[in-house]
Write a structure and sequence with these properties.
Blueprint lengths: L8 H15 L3 E5 L5 H7 L8 E6 L3 H8 L3 H7 L4 H14 L5 E7 L14 E8 L5 E6 L4 H20 L1
Parallel strand pairs: 1-2, 1-3
Antiparallel strand pairs: 3-4, 4-5
Helix pairs in contact: 1-6
Length: 166
């Protein structure tokens, strides 16, 4: 297979399904700005039902609280688009999904509005976390329109999951 830096979304998704199947790893996803795109990419691949337990679209702060247990304190102190929230999303996803061993989350500002000087449009935070281990965090400020930011976020999320499974 090609180097993951040059893999397409479908190649990454297929590689994730293959690796997770081989390693008997169940995944859970917590998506905000991607709105289910990661789950859609994975479920496009035959065999995904063996490794994807669920994908939660937690677009609003209330959804992050209700479905993932993200605390009021984290949201009030750091905001929905932050490392702290992305990590709380993976931690919460694992707590709410006993069958999963690996969680991934994404939260960001896809635009065109919603940005600020401190948190510009294109800022996206990512987290992956194995059950019982500390979360891995990444963030980027992507350029481009809403579709571009969301697609770059999808690609980065899949790359993180792939790298965790390798």
């Amino acid at each position: 297979m090609t180097d993951n830096a040059t893999m397409t979304i479908s190649e990454l998704a297929k590689a994730i399904i293959t690796l997770a199947s081989e390693k008997n790893v169940m995944l859970v996803l917590a998506e905000s700005c991607t709105g289910g795109m990661i789950a859609a990419a994975l479920t496009d691949i035959a065999g995904s039902s063996a490794v994807l337990d669920r994908g939660l679209v937690t677009y609003s702060n209330q959804a992050k609280q209700d479905l993932l247990g993200v605390s009021d304190d984290i949201l009030a102190s750091y905001g929905a688009v932050s490392a702290e929230t992305a990590i709380a999303m993976t931690t919460g996803a694992l707590l709410k999904t006993p069958a999963a061993q690996l969680a991934a989350s994404v939260t960001g500002i896809a635009g065109p509005g919603g940005g600020s000087q401190d948190k510009p449009v294109g800022l996206v935070h990512f987290s992956c976390q194995w059950r019982g281990k500390p979360a891995v965090h990444d963030h980027h400020i992507f350029t481009g329109d809403r579709d571009t930011v969301r697609n770059k976020s999808l690609l980065n999320s899949l790359t993180m999951i792939y790298n965790e499974l390798k």
